[in-house]
């Protein structure tokens, strides 16, 4: 995956409370929710929910198919936090030999690697290679085509 666009998060995002009913949707047969649940006054602010550190957060569009196994698809928008120290298992945005990439940080034996979520792409061992971590992916925004 490569960089499509880079958008900084607003340093003080305005509050935007959207309706957030108590009902939780199951990905299966769930029956009918109580009609009273529609009248509960709950709201959800996506800035509050997703952007934990606004000054260290940016949005990034991605292209390519190297992360499909991890639920990141061509055209998705990533929310990236620069303040998180990457650990094995994190999906990170990094500059590797001058190219921006999105990969999963893993240890293979004792060798740190950047790994794809697509078997067509080999892991990138971080040995004798220049790698600058830009941040850890906190969220993926995937829009369905309608």
UniProtKB/TrEMBL annotation:
<protein>
    <submittedName>
        <fullName>Translesion error-prone DNA polymerase V autoproteolytic subunit</fullName>
        <ecNumber>2.7.7.7</ecNumber>
    </submittedName>
</protein>
<dbReference type="InterPro" id="IPR006197">
    <property type="entry name" value="Peptidase_S24_LexA"/>
</dbReference>
<dbReference type="GO" id="GO:0003887">
    <property type="term" value="F:DNA-directed DNA polymerase activity"/>
</dbReference>
<dbReference type="InterPro" id="IPR015927">
    <property type="entry name" value="Peptidase_S24_S26A/B/C"/>
</dbReference>
<keyword id="KW-0742">SOS response</keyword>
<dbReference type="InterPro" id="IPR050077">
    <property type="entry name" value="LexA_repressor"/>
</dbReference>
<dbReference type="Pfam" id="PF00717">
    <property type="entry name" value="Peptidase_S24"/>
</dbReference>
<dbReference type="InterPro" id="IPR036286">
    <property type="entry name" value="LexA/Signal_pep-like_sf"/>
</dbReference>
<dbReference type="InterPro" id="IPR039418">
    <property type="entry name" value="LexA-like"/>
</dbReference>
<comment type="similarity">
    <text>Belongs to the peptidase S24 family.</text>
</comment>
<keyword id="KW-0808">Transferase</keyword>
<keyword id="KW-0378">Hydrolase</keyword>
<keyword id="KW-0548">Nucleotidyltransferase</keyword>
<keyword id="KW-0068">Autocatalytic cleavage</keyword>
<keyword id="KW-0227">DNA damage</keyword>
<feature type="domain" description="Peptidase S24/S26A/S26B/S26C">
    <location>
        <begin position="31"/>
        <end position="137"/>
    </location>
</feature>
<keyword id="KW-0234">DNA repair</keyword>
